[in-house]
């Protein structure tokens, strides 16, 4: 059983994905996807690249997730799965690219500035 690996990042989350031919089992941090992401929306996000290629039950996927929150983790996993599928079959790239699954979303939280309560918010101005 040969594993194809890929990496995906989103916000502070990093996903390492290992894809092998199989029956469609997705394991995240040694737990089933339903146990790791109870929300069906997040499960849907992770499975999106597979659904696009009608390959939901073709591959077994192992994912190691670190950092970030559940939204960032699910989107990092989606990017990593899409990259792994392109490694397996280069002809799938245009379909995944059209859906936007191969684009790294570079938006991250803006840093807090000194003399301010948050990144852009200012303390209340008092004229007198």
UniProtKB/TrEMBL annotation:
<feature type="compositionally biased region" description="Basic residues">
    <location>
        <begin position="113"/>
        <end position="128"/>
    </location>
</feature>
<keyword id="KW-0687">Ribonucleoprotein</keyword>
<dbReference type="Pfam" id="PF00380">
    <property type="entry name" value="Ribosomal_S9"/>
</dbReference>
<dbReference type="GO" id="GO:0003723">
    <property type="term" value="F:RNA binding"/>
</dbReference>
<dbReference type="GO" id="GO:0006412">
    <property type="term" value="P:translation"/>
</dbReference>
<comment type="similarity">
    <text>Belongs to the universal ribosomal protein uS9 family.</text>
</comment>
<dbReference type="InterPro" id="IPR023035">
    <property type="entry name" value="Ribosomal_uS9_bac/plastid"/>
</dbReference>
<feature type="region of interest" description="Disordered">
    <location>
        <begin position="108"/>
        <end position="128"/>
    </location>
</feature>
<dbReference type="InterPro" id="IPR020574">
    <property type="entry name" value="Ribosomal_uS9_CS"/>
</dbReference>
<dbReference type="InterPro" id="IPR014721">
    <property type="entry name" value="Ribsml_uS5_D2-typ_fold_subgr"/>
</dbReference>
<dbReference type="InterPro" id="IPR020568">
    <property type="entry name" value="Ribosomal_Su5_D2-typ_SF"/>
</dbReference>
<dbReference type="GO" id="GO:0022627">
    <property type="term" value="C:cytosolic small ribosomal subunit"/>
</dbReference>
<protein>
    <recommendedName>
        <fullName>Small ribosomal subunit protein uS9</fullName>
    </recommendedName>
</protein>
<keyword id="KW-0689">Ribosomal protein</keyword>
<dbReference type="InterPro" id="IPR000754">
    <property type="entry name" value="Ribosomal_uS9"/>
</dbReference>
<dbReference type="GO" id="GO:0003735">
    <property type="term" value="F:structural constituent of ribosome"/>
</dbReference>
